[in-house]
């Protein structure tokens, strides 16, 4: 299975929920395009657990931009963003390691 999507703008995702971090590399954003941190944070807020059927894990979802943004603008080079998993518990997955889980890639 590939982890890169798109042609003119491509997104490559990496990491797993039980690892140290997850992240992405976004390639193809034109140099000089403004980076809107408030928009990104608002979108990340939408994925936080809500209700009684969501995960009990809490993650900060703070994006660490390693490359591709300088002084609030995209530079034209690939943008690398990393999110540290501060609340991962790999042992939690041992019981379900061989079971396909709905809403996970292993289910399909």
User: Which shape, going by the Cα principal axes?
Assistant: globular
Mean pLDDT: 85
Q: How many E strands?
A: 7
Number of H- or I-type helical stretches: 1
3D architecture notes:
By secondary structure, this protein is mainly β. It has 1 helix and 7 strands, in the order βββαββββ. It has one helix spanning 37-45; strands spanning 4-5, 10-15, 21-27, 64-67, 69-70, 73-74, 79-84. It has a 5-stranded antiparallel β-sheet, with no helix packed on it. The chain starts with a strand and ends in a 24-residue tail after the last strand. The relative contact order is 0.21. The mean pLDDT is 85.
Quick rundown:
By secondary structure, this protein is mainly beta. Helices cover about 10% and strands about 25% of the residues. It is globular, with a radius of gyration of 16 Å.
Overview features:
mainly beta; 108 residues; five-stranded antiparallel beta sheet; two-stranded antiparallel sheet
Outline the fold blueprint.
Blueprint lengths: L3 E2 L4 E6 L5 E7 L9 H9 L18 E4 L1 E2 L2 E2 L4 E6 L24
Antiparallel strand pairs: 1-2, 2-3, 3-7, 4-7, 5-6
């Amino acid at each position: 299975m590939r982890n890169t999507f798109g042609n003119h703008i491509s997104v490559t995702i990496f990491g797993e929920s039980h690892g140290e971090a997850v992240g992405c590399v976004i390639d193809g954003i034109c140099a000089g395009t403004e980076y809107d941190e408030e928009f990104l944070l608002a979108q990340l807020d939408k994925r936080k657990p809500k209700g009684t059927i969501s995960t009990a894990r809490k993650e900060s979802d703070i994006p660490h931009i390693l490359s591709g943004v300088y002084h609030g603008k995209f530079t034209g080079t690939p943008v690398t963003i990393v999110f540290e998993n501060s609340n991962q518990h790999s042992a939690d997955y041992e019981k379900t390691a061989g079971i396909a889980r709905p809403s996970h890639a292993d289910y399909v």
